[in-house]
Specification:
mainly alpha
Length: about 70
């Protein structure tokens, strides 16, 4: 895997996972403090790195967490 493929996967993961987690997590929280936002972004960056490193297998396992139907 070269650098451009890694960053394409990372940015796509950031967009998709960021939106999914934003709407599923912050929907239930009434007030968010600074540490909640920092934790959200650290978790998001970690999952994006995981998705960029492991590709399609990571997407299958990560999106399985959001599969509710």
């Amino acid at each position: 895997m070269d650098r451009s493929e890694y960053w394409i996967r990372f940015v796509c993961g950031f967009i998709v996972l960021g939106l999914l987690s934003f709407f599923s997590i912050f929907k239930w929280i009434e007030s968010v403090d600074l540490w909640g936002i920092v934790g959200y972004f650290l978790t998001l960056l970690g999952t994006c790195h995981y998705a960029a490193k492991h590709g399609d297998d990571a997407w299958r396992s990560l999106l399985g967490w959001f599969h509710w139907w």
